[in-house]
Amino acid sequence: IVAMAVLTAPLVEEVVYRGVLYPALQRRIGMHLGVVGVMLVFAAIHFPQYYPNYGAISTIVVLSLTLTVIRAYTGRLLPCVVIHTIFNSASSVGILLEPYLKNLQSLTEQPTSSFLPLLLSTSPVARLISYLF
What we know:
Blueprint: H1 2-29, H2 31-50, H3 54-74, H4 78-108, H5 115-120, H6 124-132
Helix pairs in contact: 1-2, 1-4, 2-3, 3-4, 4-6
């Protein structure tokens, strides 16, 4: 699944949404409405995958808007594919590391008596850093 998300999905989705759909919409309804149209279609397709995580849905909307604007202003698809690949790679690494960070979080939980340990205990990444150092 990670290989598909990182290697194939960005290429296929960029070709479909910003390589085919965007130019067609741009010719019909103009650049600005074409950008909005592609953003909405891309977000709608991903909505069932991420519902009810509105943070993830918002991120997908911003990603789609960014990629479509890049396509609109550069006229190139390659930057979109590269950015989409990086985004999916980072997301996949986060998903793969999440169980380990949760285990690490439970190992480092201890009573806090000062502000600094409390601050460090607020996020898994901060806990990882405090555990390592």
